[in-house]
Write a structure and sequence with these properties.
The chain is of the alpha+beta class. It has two domains: 68 residues, Helicase, Ruva Protein, domain 3 (Orthogonal Bundle), CATH 1.10.8; 111 residues, Bit1. It has a four-stranded mixed β-sheet, with helices on both faces. A two-stranded antiparallel sheet has the order 1-2. α1 crosses α3 and α2 packs across α3. The longest helix is centred in the N-terminal third of the chain and has 24 residues.
Amino acid sequence: METCEQGSTGEAQGAMEVNLDYLLQLKELDIPEEEAKKALIVTGNISAEEAAIFYFESLERLNEEMEDEQNSHKMVFVVNMELPMGVGKIAAQVGHAAVGLYQVLIKESKTREMAYKWDEYGAKKVVLQGSTTAHLLELQALAISLNLPNYLVRDAGRTQIAAGSYTVLSIMGEAESVNVVTGKLKLLN
């Protein structure tokens, strides 16, 4: 057995023991040395076969997670930052945008399926900054051109801002498509 030491002081800072024969077999399978060592340690140095199975299953899980992330759906909210809204008002308007968009989604079977996928993969939500009313309208037009369900909130004017003001745009779709519309916007702080 080989003992690999980490650190530059010569002291074993978390010494890892791996079977040299198994390590060589894994390297012949083009498994990177550090990954091979980890797989051997995790599987208890039982065999090169066990470590290889662990490594390739881990790789497969990672690929599936990346695929799920790419195909996952998200709901994005773009807040109109030119309006003088307090934190509570913004929160309420984002709530209106979420409920409004969800109601749009469940009306039709094709968008209802999108809502189910969104919910299944964690119901990802992101709140971003839009600069002006015109900016929100441009983003909405782009979302419509990409067939992305969206909902634009118009305020009733009972509290902080004028009636009819566009406060928040919500958009739903596959992350990649939504990012075409909102990918360059800053997160709301």
